[in-house]
Specification:
Number of domains: 2
Distance between the termini: 30 Å
Shape: elongated
Structural class: alpha/beta
Radius of gyration: 27 Å
Strand content: 5-15%
Number of strands: 6
Length: about 300
């Protein structure tokens, strides 16, 4: 289309000596603008082809994709000119799409402080479990024994790598949980499920671990910790979307948001501790959370996908 318009403008320029052109029509400027647009489109095409190639390589590596390999990207594949590092992602429970980045946070279930964070342009969380857990800075008192994650973070490979490299036990939902509980479900919750056999798949093992009485009690903490943290960030602090463009800038913005949340929460913790009349509040808090070894240190993981 742009090439045809350039040809039309060149033809008008050639007729300029023979007839009057419409007033206000700057042919050289219009040609230059379209030529520049063509350069951007060519660059975008190269980016789309490169991304498509990477996606196909991941599919071949995983060998779990249901879709067949495609040598060419789909016709509706897009790239954003103003923020090429962002991606089109499903938001609003998958009901619509937005140009967005994907931010994750690791929350300590005892203090409800954010202890780790990542930002990526990958719309799928299944590859973010290990990087997010590894984002916890070294040299701190935080070391997890158990990790609680929703079904979006679960994949057999992610759990295997996380438990191997971080020496943790993952408790992840392998599917959406029903809100309504039948009588059979309530009775089943009062006992541990049968043990899995030696031929059980990794997903079956995770399902049994998740459905165990111990697993259900632990997983309740995810809704009580990481979910309220994101609710506070969005509703109380008013952070609902990123304002900057570029992955590095978004990472810096997410750092500021987390820093603000932690400072706010630390202030509230201090106020609550100082309200205690017996003992030194800070000493009691430090002894409870740091000096005494924790039998189970839990981290809950969640994500924020916003434009």
């Amino acid at each position: 289309m742009l090439r045809k318009e350039v040809d039309q403008l060149i033809e008008k320029a050639e007729r300029a000596d023979r007839e009057d052109l419409p007033i206000g029509l700057d042919i050289p400027a219009e040609i230059s603008r379209r030529e520049e647009r063509i350069k951007h489109l060519r660059k975008a095409r190269e980016m789309i082809l490169e991304r498509h190639k990477e996606e196909q390589q991941k599919k071949k590596k995983g060998k779990t994709s249901r879709s067949a390999d495609q040598s060419e990207p789909p016709p509706k594949k897009q790239v954003n000119f103003t923020d090429p590092e962002s991606r089109i992602m499903k938001t609003g429970n998958g009901k619509h799409f937005e140009q967005a980045c994907n931010a994750q946070a690791v929350v300590d279930t005892e203090s409800m402080l954010i202890v780790g964070k990542t930002v990526t342009n990958a719309p799928n969380d299944k590859e973010q479990l290990l990087p997010t857990l590894k984002s916890i800075p070294g040299g701190t008192d935080y070391s997890a024994e158990n990790v609680l994650a929703d079904s979006g973070f679960y994949s057999e490979e992610a759990v295997r790598e996380t438990e191997k490299e971080c020496d943790v036990t993952d408790y992840a939902a392998v599917g959406k949980q029903r809100h309504h509980k039948s009588i059979e479900d309530l009775e089943k919750a009062l006992r541990d499920p049968d043990l899995t056999g030696p031929d059980a798949t990794a997903q079956e093992v995770m399902q049994k671990r998740f459905e165990s009485m111990h697993g259900r009690e632990l997983y309740k903490l995810r809704k009580q910790t990481v979910e309220p943290v994101f609710g506070i960030i969005k509703s109380v602090m008013g952070f609902a979307r990123f304002s900057l463009r570029g992955l590095q800038a978004v990472q810096g913005e997410w750092d500021l948001v987390i820093l603000s949340y932690n400072m706010k929460h630390l202030f509230n913790l201090k106020q609550a501790l100082e309200s205690q009349k017996s003992g030194t509040p800070f000493d009691k808090y430090y002894q409870k959370h740091h000096a005494t070894p924790c039998c189970e240190r839990l981290f809950a993981i969640n994500n924020l996908s916003e434009s």
